[in-house]
Amino acid sequence: DAGVIQSPRHEVTEMGQEVTLRCKPISGHNSLFWYRQTMMRGLELLIYFNNNVPIDDSGMPEDRFSAKMPNASFSTLKIQPSEPRDSAVYFCASSLLTGLNTEAFFGQGTRLTVV
Amino acid sequence: GQQVMQIPQYQHVQEGEDFTTYCNSSTTLSNIQWYKQRPGGHPVFLIQLVKSGEVKKQKRLTFQFGEAKKNSSLHITATQTTDVGTYFCAVLKTSYDKVIFGPGTSLSVIP
User: Fold this and answer.
1) Which of B2, B4, B37, B42 to mutate to test the interface with A (most CBs of A within 10 A)?
2) What residue of B is the nearest CA neighbor of A54?
3) Alpha-carbon distance A13 to B66, whole Å?
4) Which residues in chain A show pLDDT less than 70?
């Protein structure tokens, strides 16, 4: 398996523009997580899907952020409009939750810079 | 909400010295995981601990889960430059099966 695949790896955009980050989880995994990592705030969980359904989006910072998972093999995280403070590395991770087995497999991340 | 703290935030050691990072929770945990993130990389799963007082070893790394299941430690014996990175503990929030990460301990190894 190729692992969790994220695209793009790097994104530079101007303030106010829409940004869409993409994620393909590991085939067969039933859970998908979006994290944001910054020096100041560390690794923050934004939203969590289980069987394609959003379970907990309490970490989504504002209404400018939205996430979808239309099927088991694809998810997007959208920021509209983007702001400089959204600059961070965004990770997608997937997991096969079975009982207490919760190992998360991370993608390479998308480094977002909003100027 | 469930909070996870890690100490120290940063640690600089001479190559060959030992290193320990500690993870503390305000609540009893069902399990705890440890991840390593190399500079510029992504978090990679190291291990999961489930039982009270559990100790697991991976070569020079020793992981321990506290008796009360509220704390954990990662100990590296005789650090090497390949150990450089940030070590995160992560806990499962059982109400939603989501994994919450601690703030991490950044390890630098001076050759």
Assistant:
1) B42
2) B96
3) 46
4) 1, 99-100
